[in-house]
Design goal:
Keywords: Membrane, Transmembrane, Transmembrane helix. The protein is elongated, with a radius of gyration of 14 Å. It has one domain. With 57 residues, the protein is mainly alpha-helical.
Length: 57
Amino acid sequence: MSIGWIVGSSLATVVLLAGIISLFIGIRKSNHRRWPWWFIGFGVAALVSAAINYPGT
């Protein structure tokens, strides 16, 4: 496995989870912000990119 793919997919997963958690906390506090949606979008796009560029054996 390529170390770049592992680091990239791990970072994308962390950013995606941070966005989802922040979105739920914002909804509970009735505090609607736009930045969690940017984190979610970035995380999904990075995971799709990682899946496309997955190093085949």
